[in-house]
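Quick start: what a row looks like.
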Amino acid sequence: MDTEPYLAGILAGIMAVAVVTAILTAVRKKQGRPKPEYDERQMAARGVAYRWAFLTLMLSLAVNTGVEAIWGPWAKPGVSAWMLIFLSIGVFIVACVRKDAYFAVAQNPRTYLWLFGAVVLCQIPNFLLQLRSGDLVEDGLLTWNALSPACGVLFGVMFVCMLVRLRRQKREEQEDAEA
């Protein structure tokens, strides 16, 4: 597989996200909506989540170094690092969602739940096409094509965590209303 067009696509995607984010930020400022703020409890929980994510990244990089030194690489250069970054991001997300610190107080998690679900659904056909074409593994090593399904898995974890948290929160609110 020629990685140059793939990397160009990744860069184009990152630039598109940056442009959309800038536009949404400008619209929010123009409408006079304040930036979502986290309360003290959420900031403390996010700090703990950052520590867990950083520790996960450092330990997984150390383990990966040992694995590659003993058994050789399991992925193309750079792919393993991104997989471990996704793992670290997943740890951060799960830790934040469990402590209700992923979204700011004024943000509506249900909107993002739809977004996460849409990303997962968009990744499924891509994964099936990659699996069918055999581009995920080349010479026994994961290729850059494996990052897209890995990103889909990350968003799937986000989706499931948020869904569980929202259902638990709804059940707690119903129990409080009945009491």
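That is the whole record. The first helix runs from residue 3 to 31. The chain has five helices and two strands.
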